[in-house]
């Protein structure tokens, strides 16, 4: 797949290509990720083990391996690209749901998976005037792209952790790719 460069002024570059199976969209880079210049780099973050456990990658990748996700049909972005920190510290003016909408239209992934409720709420409130978001498949779509809200794999959100929505999303992605 040919990567698409859209990283002007971003803390972490987008990992994008057209027609991916899935694009994971977080809120913003964490402090650890910004420092390490790698997605989901916090020591307590379960992202990399989770995408292996649910069958999206053939081995556990390291945060520094994030750019090879395109080889598995997976992309990465954040709703706020020009700031970093925990969800509570992200200024609302840093959120850019319009940019994400344009990316979805251009890239046409099978699924946009929001990593944590904050990113899903920001996007869905802007796009659909939706006030609440539950984990799992959302009833709204953008073109052929379905939306999924996942529990955050961050160590800071461990009390909300549940692997089941992640596995359901992987099953949906794998089912779609066999059709």
CATH class: Alpha Beta
Q: What are the secondary-structure elements, in order, as H or E? A: EHHEHEHEEH
Overall, the morphology is globular
Secondary-structure arrangement, i.e. CATH architecture: 3-Layer(aba) Sandwich
Please give the oligomerization state of what you see.
single chain
Distance between the termini: 20 Å
Structural class: alpha/beta
- Major sheet: arrangement of strands: 2-1-3-5-4
Indicate the mean pLDDT. 91
CATH topology: Uracil-DNA Glycosylase, subunit E
According to CATH, the homologous superfamily is Uracil-DNA glycosylase-like domain
Number of strands: 5
Q: Which bin fits the share of residues in helices?
A: 25-40%
Give the secondary structure arrangement, pairings included:
Elements: E1 22-26, H1 31-36, H2 47-53, E2 74-78, H3 97-107, E3 111-115, H4 117-128, E4 136-142, E5 145-150, H5 163-177
Parallel strand pairs: 1-2, 1-3, 3-5
Antiparallel strand pairs: 4-5
Helix pairs in contact: 3-4
